[in-house]
Design brief:
Blueprint: H1 2-24, E1 48-49, E2 52-53, H2 54-76, H3 82-105, H4 109-113, H5 121-139, H6 155-175, H7 182-210, H8 215-229, H9 238-263, H10 271-289, H11 306-338
Antiparallel strand pairs: 1-2
Length: 342
């Protein structure tokens, strides 16, 4: 809890200090912004972004940065030094998060090629999921991992947390339209639908494979669906959302119950298995199911635009490669500055 809270505090300060400017500062570079808005320089109470005050936009975007680094924490909880986590958080938001945010939402190269990421498939979930995997590999497994069960200390709190996330996710996804309009309403609806059907998908897959359903599986499936629909929320209709949810639930179960054990890494809260894999699926599915009847100009493969699927694949590969390499650099710097990680 302390590491979660300090990450929110640190990321909030980094964001208003220089993170927002690196992500959204107008620049001729396709990979990073500039420092023109250092400590929100030039942004006043009268500044407007689209139809909302710029300060509200800065604050809304800040929450994405905060939640992204908090997702990474889930992969190494119980075994990372508090001091190392503080250093890692500052470096990661600056070096890894801000550039990827710029690429998709700040006018960078992803935006330039027409990649679709409504509320953070690449920026938040693939980015944080891959980074969490890299950090977990560097830090190593928990003591007793694989020899004793490591279920949540309170499955009831886990369910409560999933409910809070589900509700809060409406703000992320519907809010990313930055307006109270039909697209926001559609994003709200498909977000709930994908989460619900993914919860059922995970539940029934687990029931079939493991012989019984679990509350933990139901909660995890709902989160997997929320992750999967995130990049597509403002672009797909109910039909696409249902397919995204069904696949996300099954894929999340595979990532947690099969892939993690096959590869032998210890990702405590499945940052990669749920956020990484389902974020990847959601980003790809956006290129398949984007429906121009929802958002004009967003046309996926199944609506006559196969090029969009290839654009989505390119954005996914770019995010994975950069996140893996840049996070490795951040981890190595953190290890030196903190005198170790574990």
């Amino acid at each position: 809890l302390a590491m979660t809270l300090v990450a929110y505090c640190l990321a909030s300060v980094v964001w208003v200090g220089w993170g927002y400017s690196l992500a959204f500062g107008e620049s001729s570079s396709p990979i990073i912004g500039n420092l023109s808005h250092l400590f929100l320089n030039g942004i006043t109470v009268n500044s407007v972004s689209g139809t909302i005050p710029t300060l509200i936009f800065v604050l809304f975007q800040m929450t994405f940065a905060c939640i992204s680094v908090a997702i990474i924490l889930g992969s190494v909880v119980d075994r990372m030094k508090f001091s190392a986590w503080i250093i890692f958080t500052v470096l990661w938001v600056t070096i890894v998060y801000a550039p990827v945010c710029n690429w998709a939402w700040g006018g960078g190269w992803m935006h330039g090629i027409g990649a679709l990421d409504f509320a953070g498939g690449n920026v938040v979930h693939i980015n944080a999921g891959v980074s969490g995997l890299i950090l977990a590999l560097f830090i190593g497994k928990r003591k007793g991992y694989g020899k004793e069960p490591m279920i949540p200390s309170s499955v009831a709190f886990t369910a409560l947390g999933a409910g809070l996330l589900w509700f809060g996710w409406f703000g992320f996804n519907a809010g990313s339209e930055l307006a109270a309009d039909g697209v926001a309403a559609s994003a709200f609806m498909v977000t709930n639908t994908a989460a619900a059907i993914a919860g059922l998908s995970w539940l029934f897959v687990e029931w079939k494979v493991a012989g019984k359903p679990t509350l933990l599986g139901l909660a995890s499936g709902a989160i997997a669906g929320l992750v999967g629909i995130t990049p597509a929320a403002g672009f797909v209709s109910i039909g696409g959302a249902m397919v995204i949810g069904v696949v996300a639930g099954a894929l999340g179960y595979y990532g947690v119950a099969v892939l993690k054990h096959k590869l032998g890494y210890d990702d405590s809260l499945d940052a990669f298995g749920i956020h990484g894999l389902c974020g990847l699926w959601g980003a790809l599915a956006t290129g398949l199911f984007a429906n121009p009847a929802v958002t004009e100009g967003a046309v996926g493969l199944f609506y006559g635009n196969p090029k969009q699927a290839w654009i989505q694949i390119l954005s996914i590969v770019g995010t994975i490669a950069f996140s893996a390499i840049a996070t490795t650099v951040v981890v190595l710097l953190t290890r030196v500055l903190a005198g170790g990680l574990r």
